[in-house]
Every structure is written in C-alpha cells, then in structure tokens.
Specification:
The structure is a single chain. The protein is an all-alpha fold. It has 19 helices and 2 strands.
C-alpha cells in the first residue's frame, strides 16, 4: 500500500513565515517590556530562530531580484570603505549591520520579501495583523501607560512610531474601501497618536491623509472636504486655546495627559527639541570635509564630540551627506526620493500600491525628523516591497501577479 504524500506549497509557507516574523517584530517591545516574553524565549534565541527562518525563505526563493542585490552591494562598498578608511566607526558598523537583530532587520527580512509573487493575499492578511498590532499597542498603553506616565523621549517616541504603520495601513482602507470598522479603528489609532504619541508621528499621518485623499477622493469630495477643512482650520485658529484647553481639562478629569496638546496650548508646538542645534552641527561637519564623507555612523561621533554623546543627525539627508560626503550623499538622497515618486505615481496595481505606499512613504517622512536610516527597519522592509514590484520587468506584471520566470 503506497503511503500518502504531503504536498507543501513553499511559496505559501514562505508568505506565512514573513507575516509571522513581521507580526512578532512589530510587537517586540510589548512582548518583552510588558509580558516578560524573555523568560520564555530570550531575545537572542528569538533572533536566531527568525534568522534561520528568513534564511530558509531566501534560499527557497527561486528567482531573486537583481536590482535589490545590487543595492546591497553598493551598501557593502560603503561599509568596506568605512572599515578601511574610518576605523573609528567600526564599532558602529557592527551595531548597525552585523549584530543578530540588525542582520535580521536590515538584510534578511527585506531580501526574504522577494518570495512574494502577488500582493493581494499577503496584504489582506497584513491588514488584519496591523489592526491587531495597533489595538495591542493601544491596549498596552491603556493598561500600563508606558507612553504617558513618563516624559522621557523613549516612551512617547516609541508609542508614536509604533502606531504609524498600522494607522497608515488602516487609513488606506478608509479612503479606498471605507467601512464603519475601518473608520472607527483609524480614529482610535489617530487619536492615540495625537494624545500620547509625538509630533513627528502626527505629522507623518497628516501627510499620508493628504496623499490618500488626493488619490481616492473624486472632484466633488475634494471640493467639499477642502472647503470644510478651510472652515475648520479658521475656527481652530480663532478658538485654538479654548478648544485645546477644554480637551486638556476633559482629559485631566480622567487622569490623562497629552504632551502634544500641552505644547499646542503653550505655544511650544514648533519647538524643535534641539534639532536646529543638531542640524547646524551636522551641516558644519559636512562642509568640514567636502567633498568626502567621514564614514558610516560618523554623525554620532561628530555630534557626540560637539554636543552630547549618543546624539545622531535626526535627518537622513544630513546623515547620508555627513557619512558619504555631500556629492555621494545627495545622489543617494535623490535616489530615495525617486523611489517615493515611483511608488506614488507609477504603481499600476492597487494591491501592490496598498502594500508599498503605507510603508515606504511614512518611513521616508519619519527619517526626515527622527530615527537613523541604518536602524529604521521599516524603511528596509519597504525597500524589499518596492523591489519586489519595480525590480522585475513591467511585462512580467499581470493582474497583480508577478511572473518571475527567467528571460530566455
């Protein structure tokens, strides 16, 4: 009697591996901070498991996107030149690229994305996971208050940045296929960013609202919402203090506080949190060694010696120009903005649009005011999605499915 054979669809298996690892990464802070997940699976063990799984996905992907690998070759050239000519940056190279967590987030996860042949099933499941992720952040904040009990930068910055991706994913659904649930969920996430998050996250979501509004709203809706928005803005300007003071008073009656609203009512909302000082010092560092750079991670060394230890550029344009030199830095910056233009204008398939845009555009916007381009893993994941679509021939894209057979 012939035994039954179990058939495994490797592509489908790889898709679920990617989704599972994304979900764990997105909730990593909560798992280890609030649920003592480290007592069950230490972080280094979890990283090792994730690296093994991602390596499996990469090795079992038959067709690879050459342009994506070329991008990494250019990055490795930058790493090599930094190692050879700027040895003072070598410890930072290890931190950015060669520790287990960074290796997983910067290299393995984005490259594993190349296993995707079509976006629809992946992004449908991703939407559900992002909704769960967002509500998990909100629930943890409501129960443990890790974002509003202390005003240390780490707390509210982590909360605001954690909510950006689920908010933008749900926001896209609100504009493209609205439902009562998606609208309510978006409002909950956005209100949490306003009340408990930071100004950078609020700015990113405001810009994404404009992006999706311009894409999906028809002329009549655009006109109506624009007029309504102008009227609301005028009312807000005229009665700003009264409105914000009322909201703050209402929140305080429930024992809640909001850093963003406090800054708004005190007129401190435009305070740059020392960024002007940091950016001025970074610019002086760029011109100190024109046209050459000081090596990857040099912004930390330059600013640490002139301002405060562990300070970084808080702007990927200045970061790249200081690290690679103004010429190469601006070329890389121009290339990144071209990627943003491509995903806003040249994506012909709706499923790939709702996968790429809510990751890539918010990532680039975030990197203009905070985070480091070498450590912001969502940017590198977005690059994987981008090359999964744009790195293959246009003729190979059919009805959202990408043919990845070799050219003959």
């Amino acid at each position: 009697m012939q035994g039954s054979r179990i058939s495994i669809n490797i592509t489908e298996l790889n898709t679920y591996i990617l989704l599972s690892i994304y979900f764990v990464l997105s909730l990593e802070h909560e798992l280890y901070e609030f649920f003592d997940f480290g007592e069950i699976v230490p972080s280094n063990v979890l990283t090792m498991i994730e690296c093994v799984l991602l390596s499996f996905v990469i090795l079992t992907t038959k067709e690879r996107v050459k342009k994506h690998y070329i991008m990494y070759l250019i990055l490795f050239f930058g790493i090599l030149t930094t190692y050879l000519f700027h040895p003072e940056c070598n410890e930072l190279l290890k931190e950015f690229f060669f520790q287990g967590s960074s290796l997983k987030k910067i290299f393995l996860l984005p490259l594993a994305v190349q296993c995707l042949k079509e976006a629809k099933k992946f992004v449908d499941i991703l939407y559900v996971l992002c909704v769960i992720e967002g509500y998990a952040h909100v629930a943890c904040n409501a129960i443990w208050g890790y974002s509003f009990n202390e005003w240390g930068v780490f707390n509210y910055m982590v909360y605001g940045m954690a909510l950006i991706t689920p908010t933008c994913i749900v926001m896209h659904r609100v504009f493209s296929k609205p439902s009562k649930f998606s609208v309510l969920t978006f409002l909950i996430f956005e209100l949490n960013i306003i009340v408990y998050g930071h100004r950078g996250a609020l700015l990113v979501t405001m810009i994404m609202i404009i992006v999706f509004f311009l894409k999906y709203a028809n002329i009549e809706k655009k006109l109506f919402i624009s007029v309504t928005g102008v009227v609301a803005l005028i009312m807000l300007i005229m009665f700003k203090e009264q409105i914000v003071s009322f909201v703050i008073s209402l929140m305080r009656s429930f024992g809640l506080e909001s850093r963003t609203l406090e800054k708004l009512v005190t007129g401190d909302i435009t305070n740059d949190s020392e960024r002007n000082i940091i950016w001025s010092l970074a610019i002086s560092g760029i011109f100190d060694n024109v046209p050459f750079g000081k090596g990857i991670g040099a912004d930390r060394l330059w600013l640490g010696s002139r301002f405060r230890q562990a300070t970084y550029a808080h702007n990927f344009i200045l970061e790249l120009c200081l690290d690679y030199g103004i010429v190469i830095g601006l070329i890389v910056v121009g290339w990144i903005f071209k990627l943003v233009y491509d995903c806003l204008v040249n994506i012909q398939d709706e499923d790939w649009y709702r996968l790429i845009v809510p990751f890539l555009v918010p990532s680039v916007l975030t990197l203009l005011t905070s985070a480091s381009i070498y450590q912001y893993w969502l940017f590198w994941l977005a690059m994987g999605f981008y090359y999964c679509y744009f790195g293959r021939t246009i003729s190979g894209r059919t009805n959202g499915k990408i043919k990845i057979g070799r050219k003959r």
